[in-house]
Amino acid sequence: MRVNVTVNGEQRQADDVWEGESLLFVLRERLGLPGSKNACEQGECGSCTVYLDNVPVCACLVAAGQVQDREVRTVEGLADGDRLDPVQEAFVEAGAVQCGFCTPGLVVQAHDLLDRVPNPSDPEIREALAGNLCRCTGYEKILDAVRLAASRR
Amino acid sequence: MDFLRPETLAEALELKAQRPDAVPIAGGTDVMVELNYDHRRPSALLDLTRIPELQQWSDGLRVGAGVPYVRIIEELGAELPGLAMAARTVGSPQIRNRGTVGGNLGAASPAGDTHPVLLASDAVIEVASVRGTRMIPAAEFYLGVKRNALEQDELIVAVHLTPAKGPQQFSKVGTRNAMVIAVCSFGISLFPQENRVGAAVGSAAPTPRRASEAEQFLASAVDFGNPRPLLDSVKREFGELVSRAASPIDDVRGSAAYRKHALAVMARRTLGWAWQELMDGERACA
Ligand SMILES: Cc1cc2nc3c(=O)[nH]c(=O)nc-3n(C[C@H](O)[C@H](O)[C@H](O)COP(=O)(O)OP(=O)(O)OC[C@H]3O[C@@H](n4cnc5c(N)ncnc54)[C@H](O)[C@@H]3O)c2cc1C
Ligand code: FES
Ligand code: FES
Fold first, then answer.
1. Which intervals hold domain 2Fe-2S ferredoxin-type (chain A) (predicted)?
2. Is the CB of residue A61 less than 8 Å away from at least one CB of chain B?
3. Which of B90, B141, B153, B241 could form a disulfide with B214 if both were Cys (CB 3.0 to 4.6 A apart)?
4. Which CATH number is A41's domain given?
5. Residues of B in contact with A5 (CB under 8 A)
6. What is the pTM of this model?
7. Within 13 Å of residue B32, how many CA atoms lie on the same side as its CB?
8. Are residues B174 and B91 in the same domain?
9. Residue B29 to residue A60, Cβ atoms within 8 A
10. How confident is the model at residue A153 (pLDDT cuts 50, 70, 90)?
11. Digit-coded pLDDT (tens) for B207-256
12. The pairing of beta strand B23-25 with beta strand B44-47
């Protein structure tokens, strides 16, 4: 089937999409947007987190056909040209990125948190990031990054 | 595979009648895992996310099957505190943004978190097909492990619940605060005006299940109209009867013995919290 969807503000079209395919597969394999990562394909790790109509979701759990005529924003759509989003900058500066595999999902999820709650408490940050796994950092630097981004926004 | 995309409920029911083999997909948080892992290859998917009738609620309360958990938590917490509590424990924020009560009922896992609350609160499930509408009390909806009372041509349309008339609680045991399938769970709803309580267990029998003996015991043991501090013996007996209502198994998440024990503890504690809230409310009114 064909899927028409707005991705990062651009009207995109994916062809030959299998009906049981996930949004994550469409983004990575058909639209050339490999920022969202594929680790578990079962909603457990959060590395595929994207905005769907402004709400963060696991792209691996959205059926491709469900995004027809909807709006998707991926980690690739956060920066303003060459200027990183403050959340991305904070992740770099705080040392919250090691292998980087979890980073795109965490950045999108943290971005949403700060949009909704400009000055989140630590429990609020932990709760918001509870669905994102990181094998490298031990999370402390990630929390630092979110606090840093909040202080700058 | 076909991807069916109805825009209205009537259209969806028509499609489901023509294609009983089509698998409904709402939030996809159960269905997509099965597809991604090749556990299921349906001949068609029936997307329910474009149907406005399923995404809304009306006073009374009739909650559309497709309302995601996040909206229940943020917008219906005052009317449905028990359901909101259970919703808060589901998965992660991303899962709660997408997952729905209709999907929880469709999957009918014995471990689904909304089930004990729906049972304890006398929820009625509205299902429909081109043949008409059926109202199924939650207690008659769960038929077996991952089996529910839906016919092949039916869809779950809404859940009917009365706004809470008294304190409600939900409790769940798991290894962390997020992303856990319940080892066991428990829901309780007080109906002070009717001198009774609803109580139900999850993940501790082939289906979610009401603890009727515990309900009857409490109704006869205490005075809801004039709530006094509960005797320890009453709380303990209530916990024991809840535990006895379960018939759990040993599995990777926990042993049957542990589940029995944990249910008694959860029932005792949640009753204590709910009762305290009832007494505090009485005092505030006095
Ligand atoms: C990482 C992760 C964590 C999870 N954690 C929890 C948890 O803590 N607690 C919990 O209870 N569940 C949990 N789940 C399971 C799942 O999120 C819930 O069962 C959720 O309620 C399913 O809703 P959905 O809208 O996503 O359902 P879907 O996946 O869209 O559908 C689920 C089933 O219901 C059927 N269905 C859906 N809507 C209807 C309808 N209106 N009429 C008829 N049939 C319908 C579908 O055909 C399918 O069989 C988790 C899942 C994941 C991936
Ligand atoms: S790949 Fe989607 S949550 Fe892990
Ligand atoms: S930085 Fe490697 S998984 Fe998080």
1. 1-78
2. yes
3. B241
4. 3.10.20.30
5. none
6. 0.97
7. 29
8. no
9. no
10. confident
11. 999 999 999 999 999 999 999 999 999 999 999 999 999 999 999 999 99
12. parallel
